[in-house]
Specification:
single chain; mainly alpha; disordered N terminus
Length: about 180
Amino acid sequence: MKCKGFFLSQPLLPSHRLRYKGDSSGRIDRLGLAANECQARALELGTKECGTLPTIDEQVGWWTKQAAHDLEMARSNRENGFHDGCALMCQQAAEKYLKALYIKVHSATPPKTHQCDRLATLLGAPPGAADAARLLESGYMESRYPDAAQGVPFEQFDDSASAEQLQAAEEVQQWVLQQLGQQP
């Protein structure tokens, strides 16, 4: 049985053998990646074989590709005057870049959090990237919630705020891609 992988909130039991694509060793999956349906079906059938899993590099590629897309959406939002949307998408891009690096460095599912500053700390980000992550965190909350913005979120952001958010997201992007050995 072959299944497409998904992140699970709980890792599989060590007794469940999983294979990475192109790997027949039956290594234990340290990422906790497997399709929920596949896992349930395997347990239902009484088998310990759950199918093939995406490689770490495939997972990192998925996260970085989506992060790049989110950053492009942020730029488009800024160009069209949607500065709150720019701030939101900048945070989302940085979060995904940081989670991609977390997967690569730790061979583990990243924490279920939206806190870029926490992710940056867990990854030992240098001061510039860590400061950028903190800035994006505050912009994320203010761009979404009137109570955090102390008013209407879209009225709290302007072009200079968008520029600052984009610069911060690009700082995180550059640091992560450097760590991954990729070009921004």
